[in-house]
Amino acid sequence: MAPRITTLLFDCDNTLVLSEELAFEACAELANEILASRNIPDRYTGPQLLNEFVGQNFRGMMVSLKAKYKYEMEQDELEKYVSKEEDQVIAKLKAELRPCEGVDRELEKLEAHGKYHLSVVSSSALRRVQASIEKVGQDKYFNEHVFSAATSLPKPTSKPDPAIYLHAMKVLGKTADECVAVEDSKSGATAAFRANIKTIGYTGAYEPEKEEQMRKVLTDAGCCIVMKDWTEFEGCLDKIEAGEV
């Protein structure tokens, strides 16, 4: 018999809210500033950065860039850029952020049924996640149950490290077999899989021509089922609860 699901763990960026494109515009400006300061000629657009680093927070992205271009960065300089990125991204999100299509209706239904604990588990900084869900009016569904790999842990990290999922389950007093996660990226799905959590992949935030590719990426990363639209969510959850996937 399949275990009873009590808890739903939602990624934030491009799962609950359409934030990645806005955020990566700000990230690209700072990444280019860093590359220029090192006399490295390469430059990124927001979409290029998104394509290469989707699912990573800014700190993880900076570590990856440093490894790629083989330059040094002192910790205090990294912290300065992390803080600057947070401010610039939040400003963009407060001005332009929208929810993912159809998600609000599902959250309303879940709240009305009262069957599950709802939580947000994100790589992004806590201040950014809270600003995002407050901007679109989703904060009321999650109370204080919002977790950030960049902020909530003793040592900041990023998905695909499963640490933030393990931390969230510990704080919530839940086990992996009573949780279901929802993720849109390879790094996020990998983190949930490494935490032994059954995961629903979501491709609705991608351009139509990338949807099929991302369906495979998410499946390969460990998602047990993938949905294109939030209208499919209830059916996906039913299949998990019935032990069909």
Q: State the secondary-structure class.
A: alpha/beta
Q: What is the rounded Rg?
A: 18 Å
Mean pLDDT across residues:
95
Largest sheet: 6 strands, parallel
Q: Roughly what percent helix?
A: 40-55%
- How does the overall form come out from the CA principal axes? globular
- Parts with pLDDT < 50 across at least 5 consecutive residues: none
Strand content: 5-15%
Q: Which H/E pattern describes the elements?
A: EHHHHHEHEHEHEHEH
Cα(first) to Cα(last) distance is: 13 Å
Counted by DSSP, the helix tally is: 10
Number of strands: 6
How are the strands of the biggest sheet laid out side by side? 3-2-1-4-5-6
What is this structure's SSE topology?
Layout lengths: L6 E4 L9 H18 L8 H8 L4 H12 L5 H22 L6 H11 L3 E6 L3 H10 L10 E3 L14 H10 L6 E5 L2 H9 L3 E5 L5 H13 L4 E3 L5 H9 L4
Parallel strand pairs: 1-2, 1-4, 2-3, 4-5, 5-6
Question: What does this protein structure show overall?
Answer:
With 245 residues, the chain is α/β, with parallel strands linked by helices. It has helices at residues 20-37, 46-53, 58-69, 75-96, 103-113, 126-135, 163-172, 186-194, 208-220, 233-241; strands at 7-10, 117-122, 146-148, 179-183, 198-202, 225-227. The protein has a six-stranded parallel beta sheet with strand order 3-2-1-4-5-6, with helices on both faces. Helix 8 (186-194) links the parallel strand 4 and strand 5. It is globular and about 55 Å long. The mean pLDDT is 95.
